[in-house]
Amino acid sequence: MKFTVIIPTFNRAEILQRNLNLLATQTFDDFEVIVIDDGSTDETLRLLREFEKKVKFPLKFLTQKNSGQATARNRGIEISTGEILLFLGDDMLPLPNLLEKHFDFHKKFPAENFACLGLVRWHPEIRISKFMKWLEKSGAQFKFHDLKENSQTDFWRFYTANISFKKKFLGKERFNENFSGWGFEDAEIGLRLQKKGMKLLFNPEAIAQHFHEISAESLTDRQFAAGRNAVKFQKLHPEISILPRGRKLLAQKIIAKLFPFSFYGKAKKSFLRGIAEASRES
User: 36: closest CA among 91, 90, 82, 85?
Assistant: First the structure.
């Protein structure tokens, strides 16, 4: 078995079905799929049971109480049998050759420490709002525009929406389950793997399309969670300076105050509020 595709999911039965249907039509066929249902309350479990009966590839699925993506991914890793692990978001629709392009990469770079960062772009069916354009331009969620084919990047772009690496290289490393909500759990394991010698290269031909309209209203909650997780990240890795201090902190506070209705101002205000709350608790 060459690949294990690991997909955590929560209450996205409709898009998950499209995801699995597209995996069933891949040009590469030596793979299994593991779906971890993170406490969904919709039709996810029924969908997986029905899909298991007709699917052409080996499908495993687990259910757990809502515990977050880190826990879900770790459970998927434990039961995986593939030589290469491919993490895919449940709202990512893979192009028909996604697995083939990941496989071609690992054939070209067979050393254990090479990892493949695939491209994520918006699906053509969805409406791209001003906020979503800002997310893309600012790099607040994904940042690909400055990368070229096979260019090496760092742990900050360890995006588990579309990324693959050799299971043997992962070893005993697992996602830190103390992170909750949005942000930093991907980068944190990416940093540990980078310290082990991971070389993360960009493959623009391995494409998954993001089928998820993200509302500007979600910005406050996402950045608040990111602020809380930033404090956890900083404690784990004090050598990486991510918490704003001194002039940088003052500048961010000024931006949040002067531009309270801009996306950037709202993001900074919520991020700083998350940092402050997590710092008080610790």
Answer: 90
C-alpha neighbours within 13 Å on the C-beta side of residue 125: 7
Q: Which is more confident, 12 or 139?
A: 12
Q: Find the mean pLDDT for residues 163-179.
A: 96
Q: How confident is the model at residue 247 (pLDDT cuts 50, 70, 90)?
A: confident
pLDDT of residue 207: 98
Distances (CA, A) of 268 to 3, 85, 180, 239, 243: 39, 34, 19, 23, 12
Looking at residue 176, its pLDDT comes to 96
Query: Please, which pLDDT band fits residue 111 given cuts at 50, 70 and 90?
Result: very high
Tracing tokens 């690909």 back to the chain, one arrives at: 144
CB-count exposure of residue 146 (10 Å: 0-12, 13-18, 19+): exposed
Distance CA 59, CA 7 (A): 11
Domain ranges of the chain: 3-210, 217-281
From the options 1.25.10.10, 3.40.50.150, 3.20.20.330, 3.90.550.10, give the CATH code of 3-210. Answer: 3.90.550.10
Structure tokens at 119: 């491209």
Q: How far apart are CA 38 and CA 72, in angstroms?
A: 7
Give the separation between CA 175 and CA 192, rounded to whole angstroms.
Answer: 10
Place of tokens 């499908």: 59
For residues 266 and 134, is the Cβ–Cβ distance under 8 A?
A: no
pLDDT at res. 86: 98
Report the pLDDT value the prediction gives residue 226, as an integer from 0 to 100.
92
